[in-house]
Design a protein that fits this description.
heterodimer; A: 218 residues; extended; disordered C terminus; B: 361 residues; six-stranded mixed β-sheet; five-stranded antiparallel β-sheet; 8 helices; globular
């Protein structure tokens, strides 16, 4: 019974802010705060015309998609190597790749800013944001795929080779099998995207900073 | 009998580990050949070098007279049934079976469908084509893996411990089916197994492997009756070992066997070279017998005391102590009508025959 109360309370705390958002969408005030000031639909008109908002949405989408593609590609390679092959100083290398997972994001962010601006003397752009996101997201991807690759029967790929596929054309057979490896993987996949969204929407320093700039500049 | 597979001086190293040591082996067309040995003896590695899934470090693998060096697995005339079966989970049964036909442009869709039906019928899975492969039982997966390999009509079918995941009843049934299938298709089968009984039941010839080497290569009967070393004798079936002293080696061999006394055996009972001096005499439990009350024999008898009784239903295994031997003799007796199961401590007579002895250095 107490568990049920906990579960309900958990859902209320989690979703109450989301329920509030649509209410404030019709509130006739520029600040999100109670008491409600009056009813208006002006914000929806604003949404259509505010070009800086459009630009930032476009930027966010671009960054998210590119980050997802790049970190998944890198993650597949690293997780496959980590789970299925032996090589020198494997533990050290894998640990190093996973490091951003345990470092506070603000530290990673500040050090990246120093590296990009002062050492490489590059300007900040969407691509530097993408690079930073990939750094953070790849370890998540590896952690999840690692489990899936460990569950994957190495004979699957060998069977494909034995039945006439070459070493490289046999890979998709293995990876298709991986994708269908069951609930475990699908669950992990969902978890990964959730964390990805969290990490890009929350507290990751260079991204919001850059996004603000692109809004004001756009 | 023509040689289909020839291995010459095959060696395989994993770093410092010497997995295969100077393997020379010839496997004939149409043969059911088994590689038998304890885990880690190199039998699976040897099978994989034939399949092309593993490169040899040194030596030559020839299949059908062609040197297979540099020929990858997909281009070899071999197909494999994996220990885990390696059924593609995202494909249906029929798609799994048809997997190897995907690149065959000379076949129409109808040809392929007919071949898949035939292959499934051959392994007793007619009508299972549309099923999802993850919904199959262990025995059915095994059959799908077989059909998937056999549909390509390979010269050699390689089976890597294919029955080890099945329960005992299923395993015995599949053993018989595999023998029948092999006779039907006439393809050379190479089976890897650690189960000596399975190897004896199924094979035309067996290579027993230890630590990367072939210990003995022979037909099942020779292997069982005339093992050429103590470790082969120990690995295959049960064997009692008695201390022995070789007195004279010639056309016949005179040996003094602990507990049994002085005997003369013929040369084929000594499969390895013997010298005068210390040796061991091996004797199988079923070639010894207990003389029950009312039974008579022309054979030799020795007094003993029952030390342990293990009842199996059809058989009873007795451990019987005899004078002059530290280890009791293990004796297998059929539980025939009228034969009691003896109690521990019963004094009894053990029937033996020098023709069942094998003398090993």
């Amino acid at each position: 019974m107490s568990l049920r109360i906990y579960a309900i309370a958990y859902l209320v705390f989690l979703y109450a802010p989301i329920v509030l958002l649509p209410i404030f969408a019709f509130n006739d005030a520029t600040i999100i705060a109670f008491p409600l000031a009056g009813f208006t639909t002006d914000w929806f008109g604003e949404l259509m015309t505010n070009r800086s908002l459009h630009t930032s949405v476009k930027n966010s989408l671009f960054i998210a998609v590119m980050t997802a593609i790049l970190s998944t590609l890198l993650g597949i390679c690293a997780a496959r190597a980590g789970a299925m092959y032996r090589f020198p100083v494997k533990a050290g290398i894998m640990g190093f790749i996973m490091l951003p997972l345990v470092l506070p994001e603000i530290i990673v962010a500040v050090s990246l800013l120093v590296v990009v601006v002062q050492i490489f003397d590059m300007g900040l752009s969407n691509w530097t944001i993408i690079a930073a996101h990939v750094l953070i997201c790849t370890p998540f991807c590896i952690a999840i795929l690692n489990g899936a690759f460990q569950n994957l029967d190495p004979s699957i790929e060998e069977a494909a080779m034995d039945l006439g596929e070459s070493r490289f054309s046999a890979l998709p057979a293995g990876h298709f099998a991986l994708g269908h490896a069951g609930d475990h993987f699908q669950h992990a996949d969902r978890l990964y995207h959730q964390r990805l969204m969290n990490s890009s929407s929350r507290s990751f320093c260079p991204a919001p900073a850059r996004r603000c700039r692109s809004i004001s500049g756009g | 009998m023509t040689a289909l597979i020839t291995l010459k001086g095959v060696n395989k190293y994993y770093g410092d580990y010497h997995a295969l040591r100077d393997i020379d082996l010839t496997i004939n067309t149409g043969e059911f050949f088994s590689l038998l040995g304890p885990s880690g003896c190199g039998k699976t590695t040897l099978l994989r070098t034939i399949a092309g899934l593993e490169d040899v470090s040194d030596g030559v693998v020839m299949i059908g007279g062609k040197d297979m060096r540099g020929v990858s697995a997909n281009l070899r005339p071999t197909n494999m049934v994996f220990q885990s079966y390696a059924i593609f989970p995202h494909l249906s049964v029929a798609e799994n079976v048809a997997f190897g036909l995907r690149k065959r442009a000379d076949l129409t869709k109808d040809d392929k469908a007919r071949m898949v039906d035939d292959a499934l019928a051959m392994v007793g899975l007619s009508g299972y084509g549309k099923r999802a492969s993850h919904a199959l039982s262990g025995g059915q997966r095994q059959r799908v893996a077989l059909a998937r390999a056999l549909i390509l009509k390979p010269k050699v079918l390689l089976l890597d411990e294919p029955l080890s995941a099945l329960d005992k009843k299923m395993r015995e049934q599949m053993q018989v089916e595999l023998i029948r299938l092999q006779r039907h298709v006439g393809i050379t089968f190479i089976l890897v197994t650690h189960d000596q009984e399975e190897a004896l039941v199924m094979s035309d010839r067996i290579a027993v492997m230890f630590e990367g080497e072939i210990g003995q290569l022979a037909d099942p009967e020779t292997l069982y009756r005339r093992p050429n070393s103590r470790r082969v004798a120990e690995f295959i079936g049960k064997m009692n070992f008695l201390r022995a002293d070789v007195l004279q080696v010639g056309d016949t061999i005179d040996v003094d066997v602990a507990g049994l006394g002085r005997v003369s055996v013929n040369a084929e009972q000594a499969p390895m070279a013997l010298h005068k001096g210390a040796a061991v005499a091996g004797v199988r439990p079923e070639t010894l017998a207990i003389l029950f009350e009312g039974e008579t024999t022309q054979r030799r008898l020795i007094d003993g005391v029952v030390d342990e009784v293990v009842y199996y239903g059809d058989m009873t295994y007795y451990d019987v102590r005899i004078a002059g031997v530290d280890q009791p003799l293990n004796i297998a007796m059929k539980n025939l009508i009228g034969r009691p199961v003896l109690d521990v401590g019963t004094t009894t007579k053990v029937v033996w025959d020098e023709r069942s002895l094998v003398i090993l250095a």
